[in-house]
Fold each of these.
Amino acid sequence: MTIIFVHGITIRQDRFDRLLSDVRDGFGRAGSALDVCGCYWGDLGRSSGYRGVSIPGFVTGRRGINEEAAVENNAGLLAILLEDPLAELLVLRDVEKFTLEGSGSGFRPVPENVELRNQALRAAEQPVVTRITTRSSSFTNMEDSLAADQVARLAHDVFETAAAADRSLDVVALCAPVARAITAELYQLLGGEDALAGGFCWNRTVEVVESALEAQLGGQRGMFKSFAATSLTLALRHGLRNRIMPGLSLFLGDVFAWFRNREAILQRVDEAVRIARHNSPLVLVGHSLGGVIAFEYCLQADREVQLLATVGSQVGLFGELGVLHPTTPTTAGALSPPAKVAMWRNIYDPNDALSFCAAPIFTGVSDIELDTGAPFPVSHSEYWNLPNTYAKLVIR
């Protein structure tokens, strides 16, 4: 049996090679002994010359609607931090001006508790920088580490801003917003222009940042998801800008390219299947639009597909919209899986705006909710950095 991995949107050859290697490693660690082969179709996707100049406010022009985003869950706050990593800490600042150097505003002395807190922050800064720098090669799928001065600059900005926090907040209370701010800064530094293509390992970075702060300031693991009520008030002061719109336009570009090059892309899948060494049943794993491609390939497959796995995919959406291939079977008014598919699992994260349920639209599919712990758009690629994804796809 062989696993054929079909990538999703915005992936190009260099990223595909690294992603396929990660997927192979992930299935291996999950206990799968199956060969993992890849199907690359990214060169048939959207134009490589796309720069987003048609989006108002992205490159040129102005955005006409300036609406504020209400934060009702953790993902909303994190999405704001991807735009402005210091946003949460700025909301928490005291009415007076404190700094790591200990100077207060005017002639008022710095409160003793604030001075002690900021001394602890000052003492923690360099050890935190050292620990993050040492582990920084794990933040992306590249082997290069960050330079210490890069980490030092972003960490100093965060610690300096934290030192101005409300006098009622001690170092333990500040650990969570500091962790979120440092992680968001690292994302801005390393995430690249195309967040949907992945490459930034969100949960791995969170783990390193939390452990560094835990060792120096006494925070606890899991602090990243501990949101104080005061932090959530920043939703009233900060609106989401245009991070989501560029990502969605890249998605639409590859979707339109899929409809234009449908037969050529399906031929790529067929070639990957035929190159696979075994004639035994297949496992097809499709991410994002790759899930739609894998589904439609199964409609024409001439061999049994033991498992169709769609991850962060739009098969449910396309089925509901009625834009899947006309040969998609129906049963009693509902859509059915392709006849050659023995089992279908659909993994989605509610915080991934490009993932959809399939069970309300299709018979014979198991929807599996998985919390990637990352905000959109990072959540759309974070599945492949989580052992739990592979554990849910391994056939025992």
Note: The radius of gyration is 23 Å.
Amino acid sequence: MAPTTSRSFSLHRCVITIRGVIRAVVSISVGLMLCSPVLEASALPLADELLKEFQISDSDRQRIREGEIVTWTPTEGSDREFALGMALLVKTKPENLTNLFRAAATFMNIMEITAFGKIGNEGTLADFAGVTLTPNGEKEARRYLEVKPGNDLNLDAKEMAAFRALNSTRKDGAVPIQKMEALIREGLLARYQAYRTKGLAGVASYERERGTQFHTGQELLNATKQSKLLAKYLPSVYDVLIKYPATTLKQGEELKEQFFWINSEVSGRPTYSLSHRVLFRIGEAYVFVDRRYYGSHEYNCLQQGAAALPSGDGTVVVYLSRVSAEQVSILGSSVQKLESRALMMPYIFDLLKALRAKAQKH
């Protein structure tokens, strides 16, 4: 009899994977969002009006004013996408958040992140010197050496060919860890430089089974196009995300960006990501976006962001995360996605509460 895997086990495996991915990215994004000054007046809607546009009910808006964290399910752009939306009130003044903002601009307090590095504008191999095959380096190295199209590693045809060529030179089954790390660094640098110069159009696809490809740039473009309220109220932010590296802003609008490589431990494996973090200040609005245009396995790409608007009681924060992963499509039905979301929410709730408490102490 052929072995079978129960639906509940598959669901649990998928949720653990997605939770590990989100744990490795959500803290820094929400932390930055809660720790940011707000500029002077603009023509943006009041926070309560914006929540109405998210179709958050009168009763849920009242719950937010009373200190609760309210969630909703944004429209998902594909069967691979897992979207989460949350809103909360932070009772603090912007001028009290400067030091916390600086403290949040580091990855050091996020348990799953084992290493990270900032990438310079042009990008050089020296920027990736800290990229290593940890944890479980030899086991992961063998995955790269024996790579083939599929979901186990997210690589394009050129990257796969380089690892297979290295595999053909091995003697006595030895695993050339240092040479492997060098190839991984070269691949990350090439992906960064392509995105930096061409934006989403330059993001290399992933080779999948039966000669198919996953087009990461198109997936992120579709995720951005789901943000209709961003296009309506903050068109400059929307245009930058769609048209990057074009970054045309109107007078009085500001943009700051940073690029990082990140190694996170997900499912006991090193997971390499490339992150583009963009900080916008437009009138009263503050918007932070973290776009992960590369993930080496477990997820395809990720785009999350948060926006803050002042209200009479403090600052209303709206957070939205979109993760694209092949494991999500395995869930199949909307009922299974609801079950997965229900398992995810307690962790996100606890994280948001802790970050809000920290923000309100300053």
Note: Residues 7-118+216-360 form a domain with the Alpha-D-Glucose-1,6-Bisphosphate; Chain A, domain 4 fold (CATH 3.30.530).
Amino acid sequence: MATFKELGNKAFSEKDYPKAVEHFSDAIKESPGDHTLYSNRSASYLNMGKAQLALSDGDRCIEIKADWDRGYQRRAMALQNLGRFDDAIASFEQGLKFNPDNAQIKQGLD
């Protein structure tokens, strides 16, 4: 049987973002300390045009794992979609401190 994370990743790859959010939310209930689940749900929200929810999940991802560059990317992408460009740049730069080789914005799942 597939895990909620696996189901969420599958729904995301099929561009069924509402279903992906549902599965990632279920996975978060089971493993609230897994930063990748917030990252993946953030990406799903962003693809649904729900930048404020994407920002909240990006922030939560960073709270859990402050040294992971992808969390800062998620937050930055949400900030960019909210028109907060200076904040988005600052978040991208913060993430690059943890992985200087990751200069390309990625939108894949973890």
Note: The chain is about 70% helix and 0% strand.
Amino acid sequence: MVKLDEQMVAELYQEHVGKPYFSQMVQFMTQDVVLGLEVVGQNAIQSMIDLAGPTNPRLAKQQYPHSWRARYGSEGVKNAVHVS
């Protein structure tokens, strides 16, 4: 568990810096501690993406109701899981 600051979020999500939702993502991810996981194995990234489901929790609830985002996400960047 770690408490992220704005610089850490920017480093983790460099590809999102400057996008319209980035400041909201920083605000959300820095408000409390986060649990970081290192997942190792064949196709580990794709496996995590599949478990997480679509980034939009509403879409996840419709199309992948057992995914983590369908179960625990609420809206926008508050989608329960960030995979990078």
Note: The chain has two domains: 1-36, 38-79.
